[in-house]
Amino acid sequence: MARLGKVQLTIEKESDSKSVDATSYPVEKGVAMTDHVEKKPGELSLSGYIIGPNYQADKEYLQKEMDKGTMFTYVGRNVAKNVIITSIDGDVDANIANGTAISIKLQEIRIANTPWVKVQNSGKQKPVTTKPATTPVYHLVKKNDTYWDMWKKYGTSIPQLRAWNGYRDRYIPIGVRLRVK
Where are the domains of the chain? Predict the structure, then answer.
């Protein structure tokens, strides 16, 4: 038994497929191949049966969700998350009294980690504000203090701390005042 969305399926065969598109153009020696290979989404083909008194309603439900592009999780011998149905084929047979044979193709949908967000523009220009000049903040160096510690404590980047203070990383004298903001 397998499940696709809310539909119970009797699956006889699952076939999965993974592939990439590779460039057909020459690649310079020493260039990483990852720049010339594009991963294609995984595909899963199912063949089996929808059996039960509501098999027609279940098939119609899957067809409607396919048209909408609804994402499912398929659980059978394989588990496939974030998949959509790309095709459904069915056969009604005299040997199947209360159901239909079915072939379904699923395609993996890769979800972006950082979704794009549209910024609304009101059309009005905002006045340019300059940052008020801040008074410098200093830190009195103690034994074992490093630029790393100052960065963690005050949030000022290490290159900026080096530029302001002029000391090499391992030779910050004890007792001097370091500018940290």
Answer: 2-22+35-108, 138-179
* Helix and strand totals (H; E) in the chain: 3, 10
Residuewise pLDDT in 10s, the chain (181 residues): 899 989 999 999 999 999 888 887 777 777 777 677 888 899 999 999 999 899 999 999 999 999 999 999 999 998 999 999 999 998 887 778 888 999 999 999 988 777 677 777 777 777 776 666 678 889 999 988 888 888 899 999 989 998 998 888 878 888 999 899 8
The span from the CA of 93 to the CA of 65, in Å, is 25
Report the predicted TM-score, pTM, of the whole model to 2 decimal places.
0.57
CATH 3.10.350 assigned to 138-179: yes
- Give CA–CA dist 82/50, Å, rounded: 22
